[in-house]
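Input (structure):
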């Protein structure tokens, strides 16, 4: 990456980082584009080099934060002692939930938006290569452990939607129960989902 491209990336990352802080502190509706560029120390015209409007920035920010989350989860998985397809997915689940439990601002912003559409954007965007590696690892893990699944994307879709919705409600509102109480049930459900989508008894 050349100096010009690196400079552009740094400015865009700064806008995303500043917007995330303001959105979580002031709220999305109360944050203006002027607030963002002023806090970032950039000219207002710079904003429109990267985003059409505040909503466009928010959508990219959701993908950006989700990408970071999968990036971190993938790196943690590589240094873990998880062995087996089911064990790896449960490790990823616990890692994401632990992040949400310790970072409520991240959870409020991402968890309710952690959908398949967001995940697809994350792994297909060349700006999030490690997240792409996470998805590739998911597919490679099935081969490694001899797990056959005709529809791996559907299985991952189901898992991601479940983690996002249950985390948001159980952590933020303790509804229907706190996440600590629900986690064993979530693990059991995830095991059943894996069995439904695969031909192997893991």
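Output (sequence):
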């Amino acid at each position: 990456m050349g100096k010009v491209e690196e400079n552009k990336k740094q400015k865009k990352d700064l806008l995303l980082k500043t917007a995330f802080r303001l959105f979580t502190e002031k709220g999305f509706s109360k944050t203006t584009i002027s607030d963002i560029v002023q806090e970032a120390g950039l000219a207002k015209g710079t904003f429109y080099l990267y985003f059409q409007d505040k909503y466009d920035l928010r959508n990219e920010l959701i993908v950006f934060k989700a990408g970071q989350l999968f990036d971190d989860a993938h790196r943690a998985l590589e240094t873990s002692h998880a062995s087996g397809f089911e064990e790896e997915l449960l490790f990823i689940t616990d890692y994401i939930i632990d992040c949400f439990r310790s970072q409520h601002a991240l959870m409020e912003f991402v968890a309710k938006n952690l959908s398949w559409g967001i995940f697809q954007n994350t792994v297909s965007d060349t700006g999030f290569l490690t997240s792409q590696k996470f998805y590739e690892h998911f597919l490679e893990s099935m081969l490694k452990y001899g797990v056959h699944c005709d529809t791996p994307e559907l299985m991952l879709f189901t898992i991601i939607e479940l983690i996002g919705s249950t985390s948001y409600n159980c952590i933020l509102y303790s509804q229907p129960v706190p996440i600590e109480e629900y986690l064993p049930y979530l693990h059991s459900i995830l095991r059943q989902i894996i069995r439904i989508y695969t031909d192997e008894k893991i």
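Notes: The mean pLDDT is 87. The chain has two domains: 1-51, 54-197.
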